[in-house]
Amino acid sequence: MTNEVRVVKPEQRDASTAQTPGMLRAEGCGGATVGTQHIWVGHVTVNQGVRSGAHHHGEVESVIYVVSGHARFRYGDNLEHSVDAEPGDFVFVPPYLVHQEVNASDETPVLAVVARSSLDNVVVNVDLPAEIQEA
User: Fold this and answer.
1) Domain layout of the chain by residue ranges
2) 110 with 69: CB under 8 angstroms?
3) CATH number, span 10-133
4) pTM
5) Is 33 within 8 Å of 27 (Cβ atoms)?
6) What does each C-alpha distance from 77 to 64, 111, 134 come to in angstroms?
7) With DSSP H G I counted as helix, E B as strand and the rest as coil, what are the percentages for the chain, rounded to 5?
8) pLDDT in tens, 66-99
9) Euclidean distance between the first and the last CA atom of the chain, given in angstroms as a whole number
């Protein structure tokens, strides 16, 4: 653990964190970048027209702050529920909840900041039939 304030520039983010098809996650402050002991915070981009693969985050709680774009979160064992979020919204994703991020816009990416209750960015990709993930 360090005893100094650290600034992590965009080019210093660590993209070697777990990934889900259709998304790009990069650690801003976590074990790899600043040696955190209890939290992971990162930046997520969902490009235009992209829907992520179905996934969950194990026992980890997640909070997502939408910076720009409009995101849809599909969730449930078969992604049967959905909520929409826009800039300024916080989204809470409970442990083990299967979900998918969707950017319905063909013009602008969704940019978000994600905080997790873990040192690691836990990502468990879930294999659901294509017709469910593409609905």
Assistant:
1) 10-133
2) yes
3) 2.60.120.10
4) 0.87
5) yes
6) 20, 25, 14
7) 5, 40, 55
8) 999 999 999 999 999 999 999 999 999 999 999 9
9) 45
